Automatic annotation (TrEMBL):
Keyword terms, alphabetized: Methyltransferase, S-adenosyl-L-methionine, Transferase
Protein name per its UniProtKB record: DOT1 domain-containing protein
UniProt superkingdom: Bacteria
Residues annotated as transmembrane: none
Lineage: Bacteria, Candidatus Kerfeldiibacteriota
Species annotation: Candidatus Kerfeldbacteria bacterium CG_4_10_14_0_8_um_filter_42_10
Length: 182
């Protein structure tokens, strides 16, 4: 009997890990983390002001949201649906909150939630690293929901429907980062 429970548990775990990764790839992008050396450029381009609300769509292991939160005194919400990166980001957040960067406390939330269900009209800044396929699906939502003076920052891939206000690509081999203003 206990062997049956073990196998059932293992199957559930495998489904949770690989099933959620497959779901994320299907919805908008697989988990591929942003390069550490690009984090500073992403944070600079976001130009976040005090008390603004910042979303990250597909926050992965939390590296971008947490880096932004260390630098800017604003409110951050990360949305993630792949189980393993979500878990890693929550563990990172726990340690930063409790042992290292106490001023983060209460300013960062990482939600296990599909960002297509989020209300973008609450955000001043939205940051993401998604596939062109995922971005295409988001275009109409951006058009409908982004409020005046809000910005979006797209790592690597441009959004075809909009003209960027700024493109950062310091060298031939650097990843492009696109900033759009509404
Ligand atoms: C290319 S990765 C980028 C991760 C992180 N933003 C970074 O730059 O390191 C894209 C992330 O989006 C997540 N994702 C894809 N579709 C999603 C959805 N509909 N809702 C929430 N997360 C999603 C994936 O699981 C993945 O972690």
């Amino acid at each position: 009997m206990s062997e049956l429970f073990f196998h059932f548990g293992l199957l559930l775990l495998i489904l949770l890990v690989f099933g959620t990764m497959a779901l994320a790839s299907y919805r908008a992008a697989p988990w591929v983390p942003a390069r550490k050396k690009d984090l500073l450029r992403i944070t600079e381009l976001a130009g976040i002001k005090k008390d603004e609300v910042v979303y990250e769509l597909g926050s992965g292991d939390g590296r971008v949201t947490l880096e932004l939160a260390k630098r800017y005194d604003a409110q951050f919400i990360g949305y993630e649906i792949s189980f393993i990166p979500y878990l890693v980001s929550r563990i990172r957040l726990f340690f930063l909150n409790n042992f290292f960067v106490h001023r983060l406390k209460g300013r960062v939330k990482i939600l296990y939630k599909d960002f297509f269900r989020a209300d973008f009209s609450q955000a001043n800044v939205i940051v993401f690293f998604l596939t062109p396929y995922g971005l295409k699906k988001l275009e109409s939502k951006f058009k409908k929901e982004m409020k005046k003076d809000s910005r979006i920052v797209s790592y690597v891939f441009p959004i075809k429907a909009f003209t960027p206000a700024v493109v950062s690509k310091p060298t031939e081999t650097s990843n492009s980062i696109y900033c759009y203003r509404f």
